[in-house]
């Protein structure tokens, strides 16, 4: 069953085409939507929420039509916007309870759900304080809580890791993964960092300038783009030469080498080469594919 | 160890109520916001002190009835006499209803839920209307109860009282739709307060100017229309037409009749249109 499906979806604004002939289907689980800033991610989410009428094509969310059944979709879907959206003078509890009621929950149920959800996102006693004094990480948690409070079938998370420090980022990603697995709520999460989404997604959709670049399961993604970054103290050139000799694809990047991984034997080859040349190995790191890599590949492939 | 109990995620399978429930919840939430309930103590000072000021004339009125067997304020003239306080209440509290949602961009969270933008605006106008109605109606009811308890000679002025309650509702609707429309054009609270009070002052100040200009031109009957530039006198003139109460203008009578009711309806239409245009733009962002 498809959680959402678009067919030739197009949205034209007077000056730009934000979404261009997009046909894509999304199944249950965690799906990443990747694209550079201005690629049309936020516009797509607004269309899927039934807030922006498409200029052409169709889109269905939870088997409901976005143009005709927007209100029904919004009853079953949660949305965490990219921008700040919290009034500073109310407490997290009061705000989340209020928004639960706005989603149709009766007052007592809204209170219970808000307490539950705030606990799940990791807000303890501070939830009774005014939101104005919260850190960015806590605000992101409140934003996530309001999207979850009415127990939606599907949530749209627009750049949930924006502005977070590395630890906050990790916690947020773990939480998103839990939502998709433990909570059983399908997730569509946007980011401009592919490496981030790789850790939590089952499926990744890449869009650029409103067009679909790629839509595939995460396994295919990592297989296609797996690399390892090697850093040694001195003797980068001899190592590069030695690895190329053994038939590996090597490209120097500043003080490091990026080696394409052909299989587990690649790691052995790098280790052996470093030992043979008597080099001081500083770092051996699994490559983080940036969005640009995918774009480069796709451009080369087309 | 750190997690003492983790019962895991529980799904919600209780009732999901319709948009009427959501709209009502938003109106109640906004009404609480107007009176600063559930907010800091500081945000309660303004609304409650104005409320107390509105009650003072009622207390004086009851005292006069009890001690001097004399009517103080007429019901029909209460809103006009207390208009400055009502206007300050509108100016100080209307921005708290609309500005934060625009300034802190909370609006998208509402719009990603089943309520429509029309229901959102409707709930906001309803909340402000109820607040203003309470501000005017509570003292009126107090005076009326006082009148019944004191047992004034002659029959109680029930008709005038009920008429004034109805007109308080009309006044509240007119003021709240205008006040919210003005306040919604700026996301900054301070500017919202200033713009509402400025429009009220301009409307009031223009009355004598227009009046004198037209009177010196020798057009007494046209000059009388000048009173209607002030919303409180406009509503009073409609009241005077509907219930035959004496006009509560400063000097001279002013026109009453279907024309002033028509002006009122047109003004309401303009305010609602302004709100609709403003929020159509805000929603598309």
From TrEMBL, chain A:
Gene3D superfamilies documented for this protein: P-loop containing nucleotide triphosphate hydrolases (3.40.50.300)
Instruction: Give yes or no: UniProt keyword Nucleotide-binding.
Output: yes
Q: Does the keyword Cytoplasm apply?
A: no
For this UniProt record, the keywords arranged alphabetically read as follows: ATP-binding, Nucleotide-binding, Transport
**GO MF, one example:** ATP hydrolysis activity
Q: Which SUPFAM superfamilies match?
A: P-loop containing nucleoside triphosphate hydrolases (SSF52540)
**InterPro entries from the xrefs?**
AAA+_ATPase, ABC_transporter-like_ATP-bd, P-loop_NTPase
Q: Name a Pfam family for this protein.
A: ABC_tran
As for family, the record states: Belongs to the ABC transporter superfamily.
- What is the protein name for this chain? ATP-binding cassette domain-containing protein
Phylogenetic classification of the source organism = Bacteria, Bacillati, Actinomycetota, Actinomycetes, Streptosporangiales
UniProtKB/TrEMBL annotation, chain B:
This protein's superkingdom? Bacteria
Protein name listed in UniProt: ABC transporter permease
